[in-house]
Automatic annotation (TrEMBL):
Protein name listed in UniProt: Lipase domain-containing protein
Signal sequence residues: 1-16
A Pfam match: Lipase
Family: Belongs to the AB hydrolase superfamily. Lipase family.
InterPro entries xref list: AB_hydrolase_fold (IPR029058), Lipase (IPR013818), Lipase_LIPH (IPR016272), Lipase_N (IPR033906), TAG_lipase (IPR000734)
Originating gene: LIPH
Catalytic activity line of the entry: 1-hexadecanoyl-2-(9Z-octadecenoyl)-sn-glycero-3-phosphate + H2O = 2-(9Z-octadecenoyl)-sn-glycero-3-phosphate + hexadecanoate + H(+)
Function: Hydrolyzes specifically phosphatidic acid (PA) to produce 2-acyl lysophosphatidic acid (LPA; a potent bioactive lipid mediator) and fatty acid. Does not hydrolyze other phospholipids, like phosphatidylserine (PS), phosphatidylcholine (PC) and phosphatidylethanolamine (PE) or triacylglycerol (TG).
Xref: CDD domains: Pancreat_lipase_like
Length: 451
């Protein structure tokens, strides 16, 4: 609650800019946030015909909108300082780069700008009603509900849900990016985003312990890094404004990464984050060899599979890197030991390729238990995906800084890529790891299994 109270009380002065050649997102000052603003919804259309210069449209003037194409609405959330969302332009341009569609920015900054969060949340249904009126006219002109896609951020996720409810869940898709938690946690389905609000609802939860909603709200709910603290975000109030909003905003930046060609974030359906970290869910819960769900724009590739489930819902977990494009590359490290006594501890593994690039994974979220002649499969997560691994190093640690140093006697170590199962698996035999001492070796190709 400390974070919430500070967040809602932040002060930031924003300059207004009335000289503009193209319509732009409403910019308000902190003074506006203090005195409050009346609701006014502005719809701004971008297409490939007008990539950088928006057209203000309404129920009687559609501009370049093509009713035969997908129409994507971007709905922002609470704006306690009146400033435009810093990610908005990037999201618009990225969407238009991957598909020829209509992108409509729903600018309800006059309504969302207030230091009193309750005032902004109370306007969400009114925003939904404005959107319903507009969509009704688009449908009359020949558009299809199947082609309506809503991306809602924070309060915008619940606005999208309210619109979906007005169409009895027939909207094509809703994506909720860290749906707002305060005043919505524990509310019944009719008062928040719900899986029945569209034909497919996907949600990214990145701040479930503060500004975001904790429980599942979609057909598939993604929990990056367990949905809690996001790597690279400040851990203390000394981080300033970023301490309050970084985790919450990370959902948007993760979605943006799915629109880049260099990063497809794979998630793993699982009952819990702990099970995912322990490598229990890497087959995606599917008997057939189909790809795991992808985060973000292409999450609806799993739509048909989820329809077969009862209920058609699942949670998916994954880890990310600290910086863009956030991708993590998963490997299994299989270890068979021959110590007489049980050893418990963590493993740090570093990979080096022929060019000298290195990447490291610390598998230390909980101690692994090594028993004689038992295989332990550890899920390693690397920031880089090194194709030609020339050297591997291992460090074993029990976490104790005093007392005797233990040895871990490895009969066989195997490294296998989850993202690229076709790659040759790498092995090493008969290693002895001294505790807290790095052991470097060259791997060899594992023998192929005999049929």
């Amino acid at each position: 609650m400390l974070r919430l109270s500070f967040f809602f009380g932040l002060i930031c002065l924003v300059k207004t800019d009335t000289d503009e050649t193209c319509p732009s997102f409403t910019k308000l000052s902190f003074h506006s946030a203090v005195v409050g603003t009346g609701l006014n919804v502005k719809l701004m259309l971008y297409t490939r015909k007008n990539l950088t210069c928006a057209q203000v449209i309404n129920s009687t003037s559609f501009g370049n909108l093509n009713v035969t194409k997908k129409t994507t609405f971007i709905v922002h959330g609470f704006r306690p300082t009146g400033s435009p969302p810093v990610w908005m332009e990037d999201l618009v341009q990225s969407l238009l780069s991957v598909e020829d569609m209509n992108v409509i920015v729903v600018d309800w900054n006059r309504g969302a700008t207030t230091v009193i969060y309750n005032h902004a949340s109370s306007k969400t249904r009114k925003v939904a009603e404005v959107l319903k009126k507009f969509i009704d006219q688009v449908l009359i002109e020949g558009a299809s509900l199947d082609n309506i896609y809503m991306i809602g951020v924070s309060l915008g996720a619940h606005i999208s849900g309210f619109v979906g409810k007005m169409y009895n869940g027939q909207l094509g898709r809703i994506t909720g990016l860290d749906p707002a938690g305060p005043l919505f946690n524990g509310r019944p389905p009719e008062d928040r985003l719900d899986p029945g609000d569209a034909q497919f609802v996907d949600v990214i939860h990145s701040d479930i312990d503060a500004l975001g909603y904790k429980e599942p709200l979609g057909n598939i709910d993604f929990y990056p890094n367990g949905g809690l603290d996001q790597p690279g975000c400040p851990k203390t109030i000394l981080g300033g404004l970023q301490y309050f909003k970084c985790d919450h905003q990370r959902s948007v930046y993760l979605y943006l990464s799915s629109l880049r060609e260099n990063c497809a974030i794979t998630a793993y359906p699982c009952d819990s984050y702990r099970d995912y970290r322990n490598g229990k869910c890497v087959n995606c819960g599917m008997p057939q060899k189909e790809s795991c769900p992808l985060l973000g724009y292409y999450a609806d590739n799993w739509k048909e599979y989820l329809k077969q489930k009862e209920p058609p819902m699942t949670k998916a977990f994954f880890d990310t890197a600290e910086e863009k494009p956030f991708c993590i590359y998963h490997y299994f490290v299989d270890i068979i030991t021959w110590n007489k006594n049980i050893r418990r501890g963590s493993i740090t593994i570093r990979l080096t390729d022929r060019a000298g690039n290195t990447t490291e994974s610390k598998i230390n979220h909980e101690p692994a238990t090594f028993q004689k002649y038992h295989q332990v499969s550890l899920l390693a997560r690397f920031n880089q995906d090194l194709d030609k691994v020339a050297a591997i190093s291992l460090v074993f640690s029990t976490g104790s800084t005093i007392g005797p140093k233990y040895k871990l006697r490895i009969l066989r170590m195997k490294l296998r890529s989850l993202a690229h199962p076709e790659r040759p698996q790498l092995c090493r035999y008969d290693l002895v790891l001294m505790e807290n001492t790095e052991t470097v070796f060259q791997p060899i190709l594992c023998p192929k299994l005999q049929m």
